[in-house]
Amino acid sequence: MTDRVRLVVTGHDQTGRAVVVRDAEVTPTDPEFGPKWRIWAADGLVRLPDRGEDPAFDGPLIPKPGGVHVFVLTLPPRFNPDAMVDTSDPVRAVETARRYMAANVAVLADPNPAGTYGTIPGFTGLHATASVDCLMQLSGEAVFVLEDAEVTLRPGDWLVANGVVHAWRNDRDDPAVLVAVVVGAEHAGIPRRTR
Fold first, then answer.
1. pTM attached to this predicted model
2. Total structural domains in the chain?
3. Which domain holds residue 62?
4. Share of the chain residues as helix, strand and coil, in percent rounded to the nearest 5
5. pLDDT tens digits, residue range 21-67?
């Protein structure tokens, strides 16, 4: 993956003809963990034909139920959310990370006490969102961290995360680049763990 992302957007002109309305590079944003390029986002149903204008989207990451957000995400080499906080006290580390994510990402409130998920590498980044996240690994390798397990994604692998508690890591020396299609969903809330 390059640092350059080109976006071509189509629409219809005033005569009803299909046209290219935009052909330009997307400017990346730089969230707390690496560059992200918003490709397309909408907070609800899009009606066509249209003029190819950007739909309404409050963002920054999770669309409203029925909405969609398509973006490219890069996890820098050796990214681990645990490196962002002092993990000598795991409970305090999770509490600090949860406050940060609640202020910067549309995460769901977690009814489980901090520290109940264990300390698998990446544990401080565990969170859930009201969304179905469909991701494809483009280059490098990303580690999808669950409460008690992890899955390594390699180029060409797809992952569908259905509103589960998760985090991300990159254990390698090269960037991990993914493309994501996030669909906003109704979510009844993170289940309280019984064990």
1. 0.89
2. 1
3. 6-10+28-79+130-184
4. 10, 35, 55
5. 999 999 888 655 677 888 999 999 988 889 999 999 998 889 999 99
